[in-house]
Amino acid sequence: MKSVLIVSLCLLFCYSCSVRAVEEPPRMPERTLTEVHSGLFYQSADTQALQNDNFANPGLLWVDRGLTLWSDDSAPGVPSCAECHGNISQMRGVATRYPTFAAEKNRLLNLTQQIQECRVTRQHHDPLPYESEILLALTTAVVHQSKGLPFDVTLDKQTYPYWVAGKNYFYERRGQMNLACNHCHEHYAGRMLRGDRLSQGHGNGYPAYRLQWQGVGSLHRRLRFCNQGIRAEPFDYGAAEYVSLELFLAWRATDLVVETPAVRR
Amino acid sequence: MTNARIAIPSPIKSGDVIEIKTLITHPMETGLRYDSMGQVIPRNIITQFECRCGPDLVFKALLNRGIAANPYLSFFFEVVSNCTLEFTWQGDKNFYLREVREIRIDR
Amino acid sequence: MKRRQVLGGMGAGVLVCLQPLPAWGQAWDQSGERLKEEQAQFEQLLAQHFEGRIPVEGNVSVNLPALAENGNSVALEVQADLPVGAARVVSIDVFAPMNPAPHIAQFLFGAGTGRAQVRTRMRLAADQTVRAVASFDNGRLMMGGAHIVVTEVACLDFLI
């Protein structure tokens, strides 16, 4: 009888603990990185100079393209982005809040998906593939407006489950090489992986111009490349797993500022 | 969608030797890469860049596939009078882009 | 007896293995071969482009980083100063002898250039000395070069 009472009390206690954990996100999730460095820190001097060049940074070509698209009202009856949002400079600070929970879609959306959403529902365009040139250009142009601002994602009741999913993804082993993200990007950040210096894996410069791609690409493209590198099956562009991971990465990069368009290897 | 950036410093005084910078989107496909079906991706590069001040040649570059994608080119020009600079890029697959910039001497 | 034989055999084996090894520095330094190949390539390019005229070293500077992390986009700067007797630079040819397409570019200057200095970004397929040959209006040819080591090569690595 006594043992039954103790067991049931324990179960009740456990149940109440678990209920509390689901409802309340912890106030200050513990940071695992003691020193936070942007990917720029791990590039060569030549690459750093190219990123900081306000003319020659090749990513700025995509920003220019995005600016043209922003005010493009050539299609009859279709409002341009500028008609609703005004000058693109008013987008300053917007990118720092993404990924965010979108009530109308009832899930976490990143900025590219939000732009797609706007284009489809309010501008009546056909949906484009995630990595299409138009979406890339618009995303790069909008994120570029927040250059120099720190990340400001919200961790609340709605976004916390996604943050947990992202965190679990980051620390979960995967692929033939059975590696988790933290193995390279926390344990060995700064060390050489063949000819490459490992960074801490922040996404603060994306969409970024990668010398290897010879063009601008999204963070999802980079994540797919990482997955392929450890012989894991990559998710599709725009996958919910990557968007949750983006939220976790944005939180993890809290002390860093937006650098878009960054130049990386 | 091709776009180009051109940077010309200002103000300019007569006799200044200014640096003109240009940057243009272009894949500069070498013709040495293969696609996922094993087919060679054909060569597609910008072969020529020209800058003229009116009818006179300022600078001309004949490019080959060893130039990086989204080619950056900067060169110098001695400004002696006002002129209209004409920039043209030409390349494979009938690629052609022309941009015009005015140079005005500030007194 | 048997142990001594085994040890002796091992010792002899080690000595035998060590014999053909040249001095450490010599075995590691294979660049003698590559240097010759690069030189031969460059001479062939000169023959092709300048009808056998040999440029003189000097007056032309090539600026490249000493090490390129990624060979897909390396900052290159070439500049030619006028030698005595020449009024202007006609052209500068840039060569990367170890690239699949070694003639990188030809830059032609008009009369109003003011300074024969060009900056661009190039692709590198191997460690090599990138050379620039300047042609002057008095018919002279002069050249300069800069060596660069490339960690991740372009042209020959296929991208995902």
Describe the structure.
The complex is a heterotrimer of chains A (265), B (107) and C (160). The model of chain A is unreliable at 19-23 (pLDDT under 50). Chain A has one domain: Cytochrome Bc1 Complex, Chain D, domain 2 (Orthogonal Bundle), CATH 1.10.760.10. Chain A has 265 residues and is mainly α. Chain A has helices at 2-23, 45-52, 59-70, 81-85, 111-121, 133-144, 160-170, 181-187, 219-229, 240-252, and strands spanning 100-102, 107-109, 192-193, 196-197, 208-210, 215-217, 263-264. Chain A contains 10 helices and 7 strands. Chain B is 0% helix and 50% strand. Chain B is built from no helices and 7 strands. Chain B has strands spanning 4-7, 17-24, 46-53, 56-63, 72-78, 83-91, 95-103. In chain B, a hairpin with a 2-residue loop joins β3 and β4. Chain C has 160 residues and is an alpha+beta fold.
Short description:
Chain A has 265 residues and is mainly alpha-helical. Helices cover 42% and strands 7% of the residues of chain A.
SSE layout and pairing:
The complex is a heterotrimer of chains A (265), B (107) and C (160).
Chain A: H1 2-23, H2 45-52, H3 59-70, H4 81-85, E1 100-102, E2 107-109, H5 111-121, H6 133-144, H7 160-170, H8 181-187, E3 192-193, E4 196-197, E5 208-210, E6 215-217, H9 219-229, H10 240-252, E7 263-264
Parallel strand pairs in A: 5-7
Antiparallel strand pairs in A: 1-2, 3-4, 5-6
Helix pairs in contact in A: 3-6, 5-6, 7-10
Chain B: E1 4-7, E2 17-24, E3 46-53, E4 56-63, E5 72-78, E6 83-91, E7 95-103
Antiparallel strand pairs in B: 1-2, 2-5, 3-4, 3-6, 6-7
Chain C: H1 2-18, H2 24-28, H3 31-50, E1 56-57, E2 60-63, E3 67-70, E4 74-80, E5 89-95, E6 103-109, E7 116-122, E8 128-136, E9 141-152
Parallel strand pairs in C: 1-9, 3-9
Antiparallel strand pairs in C: 2-4, 4-7, 5-6, 5-8, 8-9
What percentage of the residues of chain C does DSSP assign to strands (E)?
35-45%
Report the principal-axis shape of chain A: globular
Question: According to CATH, what is the topology of the domain at 53-155 in chain C?
Answer: Immunoglobulin-like
Strand-residue proportion of chain A: 5-15%
- Our count of domains of chain A comes out at 1
CATH class of the domain at 53-155 in chain C: Mainly Beta
What structural class do helix, strand and pairing data of chain C support?
A: alpha+beta
Beta-strand segment tally of chain A: 7
Which residues of chain C sit in consecutive blocks of at least 5 with pLDDT less than 50? 21-29
Helix content of chain A: 40-55%
Strands of the widest sheet of chain A, in order across it, are 6-5-7
Radius of gyration of chain A: 21 Å
**Measured on Cα atoms, how large is the radius of gyration of chain C?**
23 Å
Helix content of chain C: 25-40%
CATH fourth-tier homologous superfamily of the domain at 53-155 in chain C: SoxY domain
